[in-house]
Design a protein that fits this description.
Length: 169
């Protein structure tokens, strides 16, 4: 019987996995931000600090990309946290492939993020769209112990900023 495997990845990710991550990202817009092309994803991964892929039988079925403070990342959401919090682990994007949702994969991948945050002694930060509304993600993050710490309204969307301390509070 096959089981899901978590695999760290970084800027040395192979071309096949990079394309799979890109395709999964684009399939999950607007829940995650659209990327202009695969080279933008490669640049993001190069700036990131903690990333995991979820695979089943060598097929990518999910991923998460996280940044620590101090990255040269120019996202307005990342900048929101960077301006007010000294040290953190920021979840920039996470996606699970259709057909694999509601199987505990989000919890599995976030549990690994929480372990990393605990080792770094930093909170985990993220944002979730409120316009267009991403109610499943809001519900999931609340269940995982995230608390609201701000909001922002952009011309193209609105977000709620969320924080979870590394001890789960």
């Amino acid at each position: 019987m096959s089981e899901f495997i978590l695999q760290p990845f970084s800027s040395d990710v192979n071309d096949q996995d990079l394309k799979s991550i890109y395709d999964l990202n684009q399939a999950n817009v607007p829940e995650v931000g659209s990327l202009e092309d695969i080279s933008v994803l490669s640049e993001l991964i190069g700036m990131s600090s903690f990333n995991l892929a979820i695979k089943l039988n060598n097929e990518l079925v999910g991923y998460i990309i996280c940044f620590k403070e101090g990255a040269k990342y120019q996202s307005l959401n990342y900048k929101f946290f960077k301006e007010s919090i000294d040290e953190f682990l920021y979840v920039d994007r996470v996606a699970i492939k259709d057909g694999f949702r509601d199987q505990g994969l989000g919890t599995m991948i976030y549990d690994s993020v929480f372990v990393e945050a605990h080792e770094l002694n930093v909170p985990v930060l993220c944002e979730v769209n409120t316009r267009p509304a991403n109610d499943p993600s809001l519900k999931f993050h609340t269940k995982m112990g995230f608390k609201e710490c701000g909001t922002n309204n952009f011309s193209y969307n609105s977000v709620v900023y969320l924080r979870r301390e590394n001890n789960g509070t």
